[in-house]
Input
Amino acid sequence: MRILKYTLNDFDYSFPKELIAYHPMPRRDESRLLIIDRKTKNIKHKKFSDIVKYLRRRDLVILNDTKVLPAALEGRVQGSGYRVQMLVLEKISDDAARCLVKPAKKFKKDAVILFSNGSIATVIEQFPNKILRFSCSVDGLLKKIGKMPLPPYIKRESVKSDFKTYQTVYAVNTGAVAAPTAGLHFTKNILNKISRKGSNIARVTLHIGHGTFKPVRSNDIAKHSMHSEQFSTPKETINLINTTRKNKGRILAVGTTSCRVLETVARRGHLLKRCPREGSTDIFIYPPYKFRLTDMLLTNFHLPKTTLLMLVAAFCGYDLMMQAYKQAIEKKYRLFSYGDAMLII
Output
């Protein structure tokens, strides 16, 4: 069924809650891989290590090398002892940061929060997010007692192993509060196999913000206001994209974040002669959309009614995507951040 204009309700689906992956697989590449061929409309079920078979010589794999901050903190309100959870969204100075604090109603200006290592933080501004001034450097505090900021639908405490598993093996540029989860499946061995096959690997950076979890509230999805995130594209990556296009290779975007960077830089010309190499992007991709640089997409399964699911529908085709999700649920694929993956070719 071809719909010319999709509404929010078109991106709803049901799934058993037990399919949510609360923990990663023992090995990254043990996850399952659902393959969608847009040309033939075929859907196949493989394992993630099979991804190498779907790449060719001269193809280009684009990775998002952002690194997740241990941005989750716990403390207690001075006086009442009330427990508080917070997420550091943005560092403003060495000792001040914009934070998401829960429960927000408990905190007014000048409220003081005590941390387990003896540090304190004072609320110096309330809206739209709390701005806190810390008694030490923000980076130092996060390094000492910060935890990995797991997505809100993973209903468990962050543990020590998440510092490794909720981070890609190629993460280098610190700044995200959520992982580019399609990349979590890669091991160094698989990346080496891709290189040996003759495919190139390049990097972009998009620091994923808490806005990635922002719900779409308007049934007219075109009215949704997309969050803005910082990105950068190295000159070497620009050159490899141009070379790949010249040699008629294909470009695989690893994750919706890499895809959004590619489509952002493509806005100023297909050959990227005058594209922005860094800045912010609030690109919102939903059907119908003409992709300019993304030829293949690797992505995890996404929650209903999210902008991530809408991007996948724009790339895959709505009906084919919904068919793939139906099969994945029937075959009990593991869902969301720590779950299985799909490759759309």
The longest strand covers residues 83-93. The chain has two domains: 8-68+163-344, 72-145.
